[in-house]
Amino acid sequence: MRRSLKLRRRRAALATEARAILDGAEQAGRDLNTEERTRFDELERQINELVGDIEREEWLESTEAELDGTLRPATGGYGNPARGGNGAAGGLATEERDYLEPSDRLTDYVERRGATPDRNLRFGNLARALATGARNDAESRALEKGIDAAGGYAVPEYYAAEVIDLMRSKTAIVRAGARTVPLLGDKTHFLRVEGDPIAGWRLEAAKVKESDMTFGRLTFEPQSLAVVVKASRELLEDGQNVEGVLAHSLAEAFALELDRVALFGSGTDPEPRGLANTPGIQTLEVNPAAGAPVSSYAPIVQARGLMLAANANEPTAAIMAPRTATEFDELVDTTGQPLQRPRSIENLPFLSTTLVPTDDGEEAPAEVPSSVFVGDYSQLWIGIRTAFRLEVLREMFADTMQIAFLAHLRADIQVAQPKAFVEIPGFLPAAD
To answer: What DSSP string describes 85-152?
Structure first.
């Protein structure tokens, strides 16, 4: 058994013991006694020490694996994102999933890896406590873990994951099927199959046909994403739902930018590369000359055909601008009845987001051709570092008695299989 896995299991056992102490006191309707508090603090210290030990051991194991010619993800599993994560290639087997399906919660993933959250706390509680002071012992303990001399605050992993879960639920790409890869370092590698082996029939006692299987590397290098939100001191002190509002506000800001960069990111530092600029994705022109309005479902059907011809899976969604989605909804047949979708795409989700541009962005905007992205979004991977940081900027808006929160995390976007996506540019609005 790998040493990193042993360390993870040790951390999980410690977390289980710590949870039992808290649950026992809660069931008894009392606070922790002196003995329990001493033991809990010791467990917490050991768990935190194991985090660094695990990261170092996983880094060493991944380095040794690459030197052996066997590529393993630095997160500790052997998953294959290009094949759905379960190591179809090279006889590798997954010990623990290192990706999240759209319905999964990162908070569950983090807790499964040994975090010990206080379920009476939420991210918003910590944010308000950071600005106005702790209101109870639980908030005090949580704050003591993260505040540094510079006044910043490294949000404990579980509570940072709470904001990221909210962010994922608000993004069109996640609703389309994109997966989240929790990153545990500044560079994480995954195996990508770039060429399949070809099996051959053989006669009895004849030599087995040899075939090469080509592998590539999918590398996540998280970039910094940040936002500032502000609130009045009175609201933070008196608002009954401020905890939820803060988390949702930050998640909304991150979600919008994550959607935009996943679709249109330039790939020029510090911005990750999005689908539109990823080499190898397919393109289907509806009107190469000047664009055309939506007139039928044919482009979506043709895009699906391109995907299947490239040996990709069925599309999981089509993402487009609200203008384009509305025009698809308005299609009618010769009798004026709503136009039925072809059977091959009748259940395909049509998702809309304002991040797909429909104008030139000028002061008096002119409408421009818009794109639709059809694809198997399980091949779009969002790498997120859960080391979420929050800082309070008290001086920036001191004259209006407002407090600003500077939040930032690190994330990256990678496309496991470019041929699993088709961009259809050139959709113009229908003439009035």
So the answer is: SS--STT---SS--SB-TT--HHHHHHHTT----TT--HHHHHHHHHH---SHHHHHHHHHHB-TTSE
pTM for the full predicted model: 0.69
For residue 146, give both structure tokens.
Answer: 């993260």
Q: Does domain 275-380+418-428 have CATH number 3.40.605.10?
A: no
Give 343's DSSP letter: G
Give me the pLDDT at residue 92, please: 27
Domain residue spans of the chain: 1-69, 275-380+418-428
Block means of pLDDT (10 residues each) for the chain, 432 residues, are: 74 84 85 87 83 70 52 37 36 48 76 66 74 73 59 65 81 91 81 74 85 76 88 74 74 88 93 94 76 88 96 94 93 92 95 88 78 95 81 78 84 93 89 64
Question: What pLDDT, on the 0 to 100 scale, is given for residue 91?
Answer: 28
CB neighbours of 396 closer than 8 A, spacing ≥ 6? 228, 230, 404
Using CA atoms, how far apart are residues 90 and 93, in angstroms rounded to an integer? Answer: 9
Q: Which residues lie below 8 Å from residue 216, measured CB to CB, with a gap of 6+? A: 191, 192, 193, 194
320: how many CB neighbours lie within 10 A of its CB?
Answer: 27
127-to-121, 144, 325, 386 alpha-carbon distances in Å? 11, 13, 38, 16
Predicted local distance difference test score (pLDDT) of residue 114: 65
End-to-end CA distance of the chain: 68
Type of residue found at 195? G
Distances (CA, A) of 223 to 187, 228, 268: 11, 17, 11
Which are the contacts of 428, defined by CB distance < 8 A and separation ≥ 6?
290, 291, 292, 293, 367, 369, 370
CA angle in degrees (0–180, nearest 5) for 56-62-63: 90
| Phi, psi values for residue 290, rounded to 5° | -145, 5
Which among 273, 323, 279, 276 has a CA at the least distance from the CA of 427?
323
Calculated CA dihedral for residues 65, 69, 71, 75, nearest 10 degrees: 10
Beta carbons of 172 and 259 less than 8 angstroms apart: yes
Measured distance CA(282)–CA(22) in Å, rounded: 54
